[in-house]
Amino acid sequence: MNPVAESPPLPVLTAIEARVLGTLMEKARTVPDSYPLTLSVLLAGCNQKTSREPLMNLDEAQVLTALDNLKSRDLVRESSGGRAARFSHNFQRGIGVYEQAAVLLGMLLLRGPQTAGELRLNTERWYPFADISSVDGFLDELQERSAEKGGPLVVKLPRAPGAREQRWAHLLCGPVADVGHPVDGARHAPDGSLAQRVAQLEGEVVMLRKTIASLCAELGVADPFPADAAPERSL
Predict the structure, then answer these.
(1) What CATH number has the domain bearing residue 138?
(2) The pTM is what?
(3) What's the CA gap between 122 and 117, in Å, rounded?
């Protein structure tokens, strides 16, 4: 299968759109008998607790919104056979990459930054790369992709302290923070996916505190987390 010769400017995906797209790409290869996917199966795949980074807890409305946005960019297609609508990806043609490159990008969408060795191991059920050097070769091509084809799709991250290999990250959700800074002795801001995860966790903490406050009121006991209590600060 040949990629398109010229690609339009690449869409910047949200974290949820990336998860939906990556899940469709995964299931197309790992469970072809169930593909294209119904909304319920796709939702379960997006929220599964294994082979995902970060973990998510999406609802149907969020997935449907992501699907609508991806369909408008010709990255997802909907079929209406049977009683339920089914969804499939059009990633390879929509982005304009070869099969091997699409496999690597799909795994990065699902699991976040990985080394070439990790990518080869994790994509075994998707595509049998001959060796790590072949993975590196496709990643190098994606990093050096010309502006006429939409520009780079991956970036090689600085080596983390104590790590033997550098990791690769996709650029489909926009630039990765602090890519060009040296890692040793430096402090780094979180990338977009981590920042979103932190925001999600903060929201869950607020909801949990409200639930605890309600339970304490019903039981007539003191709230251990009063709303007006100042957070403790370590010296």
Answers:
(1) 1.10.10.10
(2) 0.72
(3) 9
CA distance 46 to 58: 7
Beta partners for residue 170, in sequence order: 154
- Which string of DSSP letters, residue by residue, matches 50-116? SS-SS-----HHHHHHHHHHHHHTTSEEEE--SSS-EEEE-HIIIII--HHHHHHHHHHHHH-SB-H
Assigned domain for 5 exists: no
pLDDT level of residue 206 (50, 70, 90 thresholds): low
Burial class (CB in 10 A: 0-12, 13-18, 19+), 118: middle
Q: What is the distance between the alpha carbons of residues 224 and 228, in angstroms, rounded to a whole number?
A: 11
pLDDT in tens, 91-124: 999 999 999 999 999 999 999 999 999 999 999 9
> Residue 161 sits in which domain range?
15-170
Say how many domains are in the chain.
1
